Amino acid sequence: MSLPHAILTALLEKPSSGLELTRRFDRSIGYFWSATHQQIYRELGKLEEAGLIRALSSAQPARGRRKEYEVLPAGRAELTDWVGRSEDPKPVRDALLLRLRAAAVVGTEGLEAELDRHLDWHRGQLAEYEDIEKRHFPPERDAPGDRIRHVVLRGGIELERFWIGWLTQALAEVGEPPPAPRPR
Amino acid sequence: MSLPHAILTALLEKPSSGLELTRRFDRSIGYFWSATHQQIYRELGKLEEAGLIRALSSAQPARGRRKEYEVLPAGRAELTDWVGRSEDPKPVRDALLLRLRAAAVVGTEGLEAELDRHLDWHRGQLAEYEDIEKRHFPPERDAPGDRIRHVVLRGGIELERFWIGWLTQALAEVGEPPPAPRPR
DNA sequence: ACCCGTTGTGCAACTAGTTGCATAGCGAGC
DNA sequence: GCTCGCTATGCAACTAGTTGCACAACGGGT
């Protein structure tokens, strides 16, 4: 149940249309909570119906017509409330760790390429985050809200570093031939 | 599409009934790919129908009767194939990072407790993994398949360490009062 | 003989996310 | 003034995962 809150957050930062939101999800918010345009349009409809946001200006709502939304006080209240709510951590589901576990049973054939691919991807992602950090958070300049945003970004950065480190270890095990059998 | 492969892996390690699988998912495999008993029973049905696994022995299949499954050659082949297949990394969805981002906009009220709770949980998980490591992977004793399994476990361990480190940082930002306004 | 808790399997209905496609409006090029 | 491509919104059908509950078998205990 986080998508509506992701959208409220994005809309508070800047009122937007569905497509704009989609694009912003592809960059910033989507790094931590991705969503397709479909999900976003549907959720915008629900949020509007629930009275948490409203469409701005443009009189005739028509199909191909751009619609901007802004957050209503009720929406802000809901988001504020949600921030303090407690929610159990969702169970982990990581396909790559699972795959490696399967490889422990049926052999690692073909796995190296996949690990390489992921390593590349995470390196790319890390570079992107570090770039954002350089541009948005130069040293010693964080305003109150920015300090929090900076922590979030550091989370992303450290997560990518974790993956890079782990994938490197995993590749060492997978790439390497099995150890010579010990004399018995 | 990883659940069937998780089940195949588990069944290759040891033929089991649905409930047994459920319990094993709660311990080992489920650390990386969790599943409820519902999902498991449904998937077992599909896998059997697809001819990848089969029920052992017990003649009359009846409702409240225990059914053990084992993997057929086709199932092993499918799993072997899957290990080498490439799959795009699934988009990240992390509620906690999102929540902190929302807090940057509407304030961090009530968030500290939640971060504490998560910190506790991750510390517990880390302790559990470290315990497993001690019991299952004593130094210098890894058989071929075990080396891979050990890498997977180390992934879990390092991931928990990442969260613990990050949550500690986040708590420092959230707990601390906002910095005194600089003189202007 | 019967009840009762535990073990084990399963259906049904729901929520969230994905994929593929339809369709309206809008401006530029010819 | 018509067509084409881009922007923008949206429906419908599907897949995966969750939740709540039903019900059969089995092994005591009384």
From TrEMBL, chains A, B:
Annotated SUPFAM superfamilies: Winged helix' DNA-binding domain
Domain Transcription regulator PadR N-terminal: 7-80
Domain Transcription regulator PadR C-terminal: 92-173
InterPro entries cross-referenced by the UniProt entry: Tscrpt_reg_PadR_C (IPR018309), Tscrpt_reg_PadR_N (IPR005149), WH-like_DNA-bd_sf (IPR036388), WH_DNA-bd_sf (IPR036390)
Name this polypeptide is given: PadR family transcriptional regulator
